[in-house]
């Protein structure tokens, strides 16, 4: 049986074959399709599109031509892939919102920032932009290598000369096999200045280059921040930058505000962005928006977001930044092809590779021009010999044309090239040659030859040419930065999304805490019954209240002398009648531990003290900065005896006056300087000498022109001028401040108040009343006071001062009967 010579089986290990095939495929995708070349910043498809347009003569001054013509030429000659892939690549190069400096000038529908697709290629037209011409400049002067196309019929360039650093200027995005590139666009002028810095200072560091390259410059403008990670990308090739839409807040005549968005982050679909904002409103993740309109036109983007009346537009905008694509992170991966291999590059490496490419381009162009000048000079040299011997040359040509070239070479010692140049000329023109013109041209050519040789011999001269030419590109096409760089470093924190409004924080006897806006409670006349502040369990009642703002730090001090601190906005906001959240869900207090004092701290704690007073009359002063590290787990604030507990704490400046009030109606005023400053784990000194049956119920820091408002358990109260409390020595018995009786009940609390302030009073059944201080009479120390609140069977447990502010002006005061 005869064996077929083509019937041959080769045993191959499938594992080895799969590995080899997959690596070949990977490298084909990486180098041949997905990643840009570090030299011209283009992927093969983009390079082929520009080269095809150049070959077809689609320069900026020429008419547009159908996009289908370009796509067909690219497919047929250079890029044997899908026509849609080629057209989409060309469309991206024409979209002003997709590429910082467009390389294709498109006419017709080339898509929109709303995600609309471009019209079919048979409808649109295109040609090159002036920036694209700069990419192809000197391509015909042997500046780059060419390679055979896919069927080896014609040749195409391996890389373009690229007169500017296109990889950084226009950026690039691509997903290969096992890797991806994400290079943001930059400002042309800044990048060129960095290249010039590298030419002038060969040892320039990344930091030197970053003085010029400030950060990405996106075609859609917007704002960016996060310099640490952005600079990390320039140093290591990997990092990120946060983009934020540019928005302005405008006040409207009806008291409302509107947010006007004029620039959005790069690669964000505007239409989907508006839909997302609408969804956030529907889902109630963002509240306070009454209207949302897209008023964008060909002049620019304009998204209008109207807010409800009295809504803080800045806080609302921060919420939109947090939850929508008005803010997003752009990951930077500076991956490009270097000598046929993918590499992650730092800023200086990327620009050095580009500069090396420009050196090679200018070197090869100079050699090309030199050879061209040498060849022309050689021919002119022969023509000058011919002119000097014109009669003899003509005679030789006429007598024997067939061997005239050889005879000319022998007679005048010419080269074949020179002799052929003479032979190629018509005799009439040869006779008419002007010797002076040829000698002038010969002189100019020799000067150029000398110059070209000097450039090739001197690298500094060559780099000077690169510098001059790249600065010309900057002069022609450089523009202002579009993307604003913000100084902030961190992302939006929770506090940025919370309005810094006044709030009332209440704490019940059994430890339920809540946060309610102050304007929830209406102001009432003296003697009113109040409104229910919360729904409590039968034996529970509201015990402590603090009026502050959302951005304050709330300090909780317990009867055991421990301090806990959390931001006010982290206390869950509830309705007026809700019971709130158990405090143990916010801070880890122990089973027998009870919150006995809450204060608010705003801003820096520098040069401030925390003054604490106990039930048994011990007072202590400690630098507030020592509690700066007080987090969720708490710190020891004061050391207590077994039968004592902390009852009050205040922030002081060091030169204040302190007034302490007891439950049985005594008070003492003394200078803060009498209290020695001690550390955290100390006990303190005696504030007041009190009887065994009495205890301290209040400690206040004296303010001028204020009165001491005292309210009793049975709802009686009065104001007394602070001038009636003479300064005494700390540790004394004090003076009488209230005429306590069975009718009034013991003192429930004492606070310093101003004429324009308001107060909130809470009783044991959870009822709260808000009233103006000026309704309460100002009486001497030894008086009973007047009825402030009908307490019925309940007792007054606490009251709190609300400082006079614009927000409280104009609140309607409801009339109630005594």
Features:
4-stranded mixed sheet; 6-stranded mixed sheet; 43 strands; Topoisomerase, domain 3; alpha+beta; Gyrase A, domain 2; 818 residues; 4 domains; disordered C terminus; elongated; Topoisomerase II, domain 5
**pLDDT averaged residue by residue:** 87
Find the count of extended strands (DSSP E, 2+ residues): 43
What is the count of helical runs?
18
- Major sheet size, sense and barrel closure: 6 strands, mixed
Please explain how this structure is put together.
This protein is α+β, with helices and mostly antiparallel strands. It folds into four domains: 119 residues, Topoisomerase II, domain 5 (Alpha-Beta Complex); 80 residues, Gyrase A, domain 2, CATH 3.30.1360; 126 residues, Topoisomerase, domain 3 (Orthogonal Bundle); 315 residues, DNA gyrase/topoisomerase IV, subunit A, C-terminal (Neuraminidase, 6 Propeller). It is 29% helix and 25% strand. The protein has 18 helices and 43 strands. Strands 20, 21, 39, 40, 42 and 43 form a six-stranded mixed sheet that branches. α2 packs across α3, α3 crosses α4 and α12 packs across α15. The radius of gyration is 43 Å and the shape is elongated. The N and C termini lie far apart (126 Å). The C terminus is likely disordered.
How does the SSE layout of this entry go?
Elements: H1 14-34, H2 44-55, E1 65-66, H3 67-77, H4 83-94, E2 104-107, E3 125-128, H5 130-136, E4 146-148, E5 155-157, H6 166-170, E6 172-175, E7 180-183, H7 188-200, H8 206-210, E8 223-225, H9 227-236, E9 238-244, E10 246-251, E11 257-263, H10 270-282, E12 289-294, E13 303-307, H11 313-323, E14 327-333, E15 335-338, E16 341-344, H12 347-388, H13 390-399, H14 404-412, H15 416-424, H16 427-432, H17 435-457, H18 459-477, E17 484-485, E18 502-508, E19 512-517, E20 523-524, E21 531-532, E22 542-549, E23 553-558, E24 562-567, E25 581-582, E26 595-601, E27 609-614, E28 618-623, E29 635-636, E30 646-652, E31 657-662, E32 666-671, E33 685-686, E34 696-701, E35 707-712, E36 716-721, E37 735-736, E38 747-753, E39 758-763, E40 767-772, E41 786-787, E42 796-802, E43 813-814
Parallel strand pairs: 8-17, 20-40, 20-43
Antiparallel strand pairs: 1-3, 2-3, 4-5, 6-7, 8-9, 9-14, 10-11, 11-13, 12-13, 15-16, 18-19, 18-22, 19-25, 21-40, 23-24, 23-26, 24-29, 27-28, 27-30, 28-33, 31-32, 31-34, 32-37, 35-36, 35-38, 36-41, 39-40, 39-42
Helix pairs in contact: 2-3, 3-4, 7-12, 7-18, 12-15, 12-17, 12-18, 13-14, 14-15, 17-18
């Amino acid at each position: 049986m005869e064996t077929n010579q083509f019937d041959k089986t080769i045993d191959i290990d499938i594992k080895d074959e799969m590995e080899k095939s997959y690596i070949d495929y990977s490298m084909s995708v990486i180098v041949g399709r997905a990643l840009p070349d570090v030299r011209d910043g283009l992927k093969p498809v983009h390079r082929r599109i520009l080269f095809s347009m150049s070959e077809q003569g689609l320069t900026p001054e020429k008419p547009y031509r159908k996009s289908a013509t370009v796509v067909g030429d690219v497919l047929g000659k250079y890029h044997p892939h899908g026509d849609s892939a080629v057209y989409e690549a060309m469309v991206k190069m024409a979209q002003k919102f997709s590429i910082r400096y467009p390389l294709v000038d498109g006419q017709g529908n080339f898509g929109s920032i709303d995600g609309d697709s471009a019209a079919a290629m048979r409808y649109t037209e295109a040609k090159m932009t002036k920036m694209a011409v700069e990419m192809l400049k000197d391509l015909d002067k042997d500046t780059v290598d060419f390679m055979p196309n896919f069927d080896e019929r014609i040749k195409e360039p391996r890389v373009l000369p690229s007169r500017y650093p296109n990889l950084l200027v226009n950026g690039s995005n691509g997903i290969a096999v096992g890797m991806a590139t994400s290079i943001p666009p930059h400002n042309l002028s800044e990048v060129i200045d960095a290249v010039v810095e590298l030419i002038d200072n060969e040892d320039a560091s990344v930091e030197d280059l970053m003085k010029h390259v400030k950060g990405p410059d996106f075609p859609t403008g917007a704002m960016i921040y996060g310099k640490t990670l952005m600079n990390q990308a320039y140093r290591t090739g990997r990092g990120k930058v946060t983009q934020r839409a540019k928005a302005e807040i405008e006040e409207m005549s009806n008291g409302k505000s509107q947010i006007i968005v004029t620039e959005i982050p790069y690669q964000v679909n505007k239409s989907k962005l508006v839909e997302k904002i609408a969804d956030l409103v529907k889902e109630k993740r963002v509240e306070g928006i009454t209207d949302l309109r897209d008023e964008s036109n060909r002049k620019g983007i304009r998204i209008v977001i109207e807010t409800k009346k009295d809504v803080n537009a800045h806080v609302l905008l921060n919420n939109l930044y947090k939850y929508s694509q008005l803010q997003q992170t752009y990951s930077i991966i500076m991956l490009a092809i270097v000598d046929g291999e993918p590499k992650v590059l730092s800023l200086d490496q990327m620009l050095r590779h580009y500069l090396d490419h420009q050196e090679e381009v200018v070197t090869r162009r100079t050699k090309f021009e030199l050879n061209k000048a040498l060849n022309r000079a050689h021919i002119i040299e022969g023509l000058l010999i011919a002119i000097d011997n014109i009669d003899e040359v003509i005679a030789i040509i006429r007598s024997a044309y067939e061997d005239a070239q050889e005879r000319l070479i022998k007679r005048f010692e010419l080269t074949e090239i020179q002799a052929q140049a003479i032979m190629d000329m018509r005799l009439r023109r040869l006779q008419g040659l002007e010797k002076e013109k040829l000698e002038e041209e010969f002189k100019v050519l020799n000067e150029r030859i000398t110059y070209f040789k000097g450039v090739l011999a001197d690298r500094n001269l060559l780099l000077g040419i690169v510098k001059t030419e790249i600065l010309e590109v900057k002069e022609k096409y450089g523009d202002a930065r579009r993307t604003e760089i913000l100084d902030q470093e961190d992302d939006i924190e929770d506090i940025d999304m919370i309005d810094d409004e006044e709030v009332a924080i209440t704490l019940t006897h059994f430890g339920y805490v809540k946060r309610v806006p102050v304007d929830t409670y209406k102001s009432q006349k003296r003697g009113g019954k109040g409104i229910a502040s919360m729904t409590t369990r039968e034996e529970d009642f509201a015990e402590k209240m603090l009026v502050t703002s959302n951005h304050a730090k709330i300090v909780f001090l317990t009867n055991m002398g421990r301090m806990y601190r959390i931001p006010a906005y982290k206390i869950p906001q509830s309705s007026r009648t809700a019971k709130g959240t158990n405090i143990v869900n916010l801070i880890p207090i122990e089973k027998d531990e009870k919150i006995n004092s809450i204060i608010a701290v705003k801003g820096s704690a520098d040069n401030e003290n925390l003054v604490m007073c106990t039930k048994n009359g011990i007072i202590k002063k400690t630098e507030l900065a020592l509690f700066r590290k007080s987090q969720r787990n708490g710190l020891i604030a004061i050391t207590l005896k077994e039968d004592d507990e902390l009852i009050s704490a205040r922030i002081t400046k060091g030169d204040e006056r302190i007034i302490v009030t007891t439950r049985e109606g005594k008070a003492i005023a003394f200078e803060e300087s009498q209290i020695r400053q001690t550390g955290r784990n100390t006990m303190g000194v005696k504030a007041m000498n009190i009887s065994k049956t009495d205890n301290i119920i209040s400690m206040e820091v004296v303010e001028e022109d204020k009165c001491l408002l005292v309210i009793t358990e049975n709802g009686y109260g009065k104001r007394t001028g602070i001038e009636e409390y003479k300064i005494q020595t700390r540790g004394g018995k004090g003076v009488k401040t209230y005429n306590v009786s069975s009718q009034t009940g013991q003192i429930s609390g004492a606070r310093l108040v101003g004429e324009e302030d308001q107060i909130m009073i809470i009783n044991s059944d959870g009822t709260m009343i808000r009233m103006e201080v000026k309704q309460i009479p100002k009486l001497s120390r030894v008086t009973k006071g007047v009825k402030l609140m009908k307490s019925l069977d309940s007792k007054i447990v606490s009251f709190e001062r609300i400082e006079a502010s614009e927000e409280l002006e104009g609140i309607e005061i409801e009339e109630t009967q005594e």
